[in-house]
Amino acid sequence: MRTAGIHDNRTPYYVFASGGVGSMVTIFGVPLAVLSGQLLIGVINGAFYALLSLGLAIIFGLLKIINFAHGAMYMLGAMATVVLFDAFGINYWVALFVVPVLVGLVGVVIEYFLLRRIAGQDHIYSLLLTFGAALLIQGVLTNFYGVSGLRYAMPDVFKGGMNLGFMFLPYYRAWVIAVALLVCFATWFMIEKTKLGAYLRAGTEDSQLMQGFGINVPLLISLTYGFGVMLAAFAGVLAAPIYSVTPIMGSHLLITVFAVVVIGGMGSIGGAIITGILMGVVEGLTKTFYPPASSAVIFLVMVVVLMCRPAGLFGKEA
Amino acid sequence: MKTSNKIVATAAALAVLAGSAHAEIADDTVKIGYLADMSGTYRDLAGPNGLKALEMAIADFGGEVNGAKIEIVSADDRNSPDIASSTVRRWVENDNVDMVAGLVASSVSIAVSDILEENDKLGIVSGSAASSITNEHCTPNHIHYVYDTYPLANGTASAVVNQGGKTWYILTADYAFGHAMEADVTRVVEANGGEIVGTLRHPFPTPDFSSFILQAQASGAEVVALANAGADTTNAINTASEFGVTQSGQTLAALLLFLSDVHALGAEAAQGIQLTTGWYWDMNEETRAWSDRFLAKTGVRPTMVHAGIYSSTTQYLKAVAATESDDAQTVRTHMMETPINDMFAKNGRIRIDGRMVHDMYLAEVKTPAESKDEWDLYKILQTIPADEAYRPLSESQCPLVENS
Amino acid sequence: MSRSDIRPDMGTAILAQQKTERRNRLIVNGLLLLLLLVAPFAVYPVFLMKILCFALFAVAFNLLFGFTGLLSFGHAAFLATGGYTTGYLLSTYPGLTTETGIIAGTAVATIMGLAFALLSIRRQGIYFAMVTLALSQLVFFFFVQSSFTGGEDGMHGIPRGALFGAISLDNNLAMYYFTLAVFLACYLLVQRIVTSPYGQALKAINQNEPRAVSLGYNVDRYKILAFVMSAGLAGLAGSMKSVVFQLTSLNDAQWHMSGEVILMTLVGGLGTLLGPVVGAAFVVNIEYHLSQSAFRDWVDPILGGIFMLTVLAFRSGIVGEFQKFFKKKFG
Description:
Number of helices of chain B: 13
Strand order of the largest sheet of chain B: 2-3-1-4-5-6
Largest interface: A-B, 54 and 48 residues
Structural class of chain A: mainly alpha
CATH topology of the largest domain in chain B: Rossmann fold
CATH class of chain A: Mainly Alpha
CATH topology of chain A: ABC transporter involved in vitamin B12 uptake, BtuC
Distance between the termini of chain B: 12 Å
Number of domains of chain A: 1
CATH class of the largest domain in chain B: Alpha Beta
CATH architecture of the largest domain in chain B: 3-Layer(aba) Sandwich
Distance between the termini of chain A: 55 Å
Strand order of the largest sheet of chain A: 1-2
Strand content of chain B: 15-25%
Largest sheet of chain B: 6 strands, mixed
Number of helices of chain A: 11
CATH superfamily of the largest domain in chain B: Response regulator
Number of domains of chain B: 2
Helix content of chain B: 40-55%
Number of strands of chain A: 4
Number of strands of chain B: 15
Oligomer: heterotrimer
Order of helices and strands of chain B: HEHEEHEHEEHEHEHEHEHEHHHEEEEH
Largest sheet of chain A: 2 strands, antiparallel
Helix content of chain A: 55-70%
Order of helices and strands of chain A: EEHHHHEEHHHHHHH
CATH architecture of chain A: Orthogonal Bundle
Radius of gyration of chain B: 21 Å
Shape of chain A: globular
Strand content of chain A: under 5%
């Protein structure tokens, strides 16, 4: 049974013609099968957001630095993956480990030479400094690589996908969700539940005390920033086979990820992960029911959440 | 078209009368301003290499016209009507620029045409796609040279419908250009007996197409059409390839695709896609010869826009030489009277609405097996004659066209 | 026994210093005014008007950030609202005089500023900045979806119209002097605001908000008023810009524009009166001259570098550093 779609320019709603898998259950006019597919895609994108906002939340929660260069770090991860492959033949699996470390080192350099000079001042200046750094990095790379997008071939092992019945799921997307959630959980566990994490949290809360105990707090701070950047770069490596790799790919994503972190509560590590996935789902639902708004819906959510819960959903400070 | 002939004749007569008062090249210089996206998403289809094509045209013409020298200025409009309009304003109000070439983003061309009309200078649009440029946005001060969305929709959509793709799902970029493209495709598909089973408007731009491709697949339509441009199109094609859209039997129709896009995608991801183009580098001896020269200068093969810039600039300079004037109306009228048969266009002529009509071509992207080198990407399936391809003047909303 | 009896020379010395400072300021301002009056005969007037519009935008932003200490990341929304409103009215109602269109644009931007303020003023620091960013993104979305804005094509062909129905603004010189007059009026207005008791209260709130609260100031109301005025002036800048260029586009509503005004204000000198003006002139000039030179591809990285340098080393901006240098040299 095919129903003619309404393609009048005034009502840009998604209209479905049931030629697909025979599910007659519909929710607001969308069949369950399609909705399930959209929710799964939403969770996949959410895992991405979670990974990116985790890095931001760590950098802000522990270091009180508002890292507006986070999008650029994500971009560096993706670009490094492509460039290293083109120049040195470094494959995807090696890149997953090598690229975050390399970009993490860049982060450490940024922290040591730039951010350290304004440590202790109003957080706003960290925002402005990293914003300028992002402009610089993006601008320079645009000159060398243009913005048309570099191509990165999908690793052979991931080509193709599985038929889940309600949708066709590419193997790579399944991999993304698995590894992103794994890394998120591992990071959360390390920070909240291990001794290293405890030192980290203590060192950044009361550095003088920790320094008294013989812990090199400045080094800890640099490494923490580097670690947050590593998470962004890791997301960049994951992105290389499926998203267009351009010097400005992080620019739009940046404010979306910041929105996620703010909604979750800027101090909360676990909150960033949960909110990331949640926002991916919210966006996915919007893409199903009212696609033109899918880029803007997260800002609406941010305004509403901040009205009701000023510190965010899981935040501790106002 | 009798009416348009009458108009052209009258205009020509007036121009001859008026032309005698302007039969000179102001300040002994012909100044051409090249405006295009030099650093953004449309950089590769025109961009800095378009400037090289412009320079080739000037050099081939001899570097001067009737003793007057030819000067070039150029600027990056970054696809912003803001920057474009203030740049062109300065060019025509302050810097004595006579003709503006390039012009890629449709929003840029539309914004710039106001300024050109106010100051009575000439613009030759080579990169933009919107058919509205010679329709509701037409002015007596610009010419739309290479292509527009009308023949793209006409060519690709009717060909695909006639090959058996009766049911269509359209992914549209949610802005004026996308909507216009969607409207064009809908009209052509329905006129050929097809049916639109669904449309989806995605934000412009969109980095992640997974959700939208999924909805296109779920629709069960035989054809998934992409009414978008630039990065959106290439992203959608890549995602479609990842989700196995063509493998599971749906046809992918990209309505606006340039050689630079296909080259970036590669034959593997883009194989089998059907598209309409105004020109292709490997069509005949003439095109190959010019493309080899272009390749030597730039390192890449030319897109139809590069070739169009070369051709239109040459036509412009010829008109300036023939009329011995750089006055916009004089030159434009002469260009309208001169048929165009060169390396770029066959059966080409410029109509009263500024639209340059010429033969268009339906092409298909070769498979990796068929493609002998990185630029051997299209096979030309059929020629669409000039008179069939473009919007007929009888349907035009352009005030310059008298539709009785 | 009064204070001046204890140290009589100190009192007169301070008064004398204030008098010289005021005289110096008058001289500088006078020279600048003279320069501005004759400039259009040497420099392309539309370029100067661009500087004036952005200078006004930066002055508006500085009122909120420099003097009150509130970093808004959403000021582009006001610029665009002023521009689109004025552009729409002037395009649709040809009989409308130019100044009516501009006033209307400013009014709408002011109301929007009030809405933003009421929603965001309770938040501090980064949260405040993020809320303004989110609201501005929603405004951007509204403009993208509305057909009256022309979407990606922009609202173009806005008529310059006639001032008071009589003076045609199609002539660039006429438009320039009108723009200059509007700019000077706003500049003087901001100067009055900042030096008034209200302005002193803002500075007190900026320096130490809890103390201001304990002194009995209704801090929220002061901040809201500052926000509204800042938004209104930014809207006026947008309205003027739409008439000068006869075009308003989505570019004006994007968050990069908010970033650009932050750059101009910071580089020029946060919290000074002349700073944002100098900053706007500096950035517009650099953007233009670089784009004409061999470095045309390096505009963005260079601006990014200047931004970073300002934050790291020249926090007071051009004017601020100049003032510090002057004070050191001439005590």
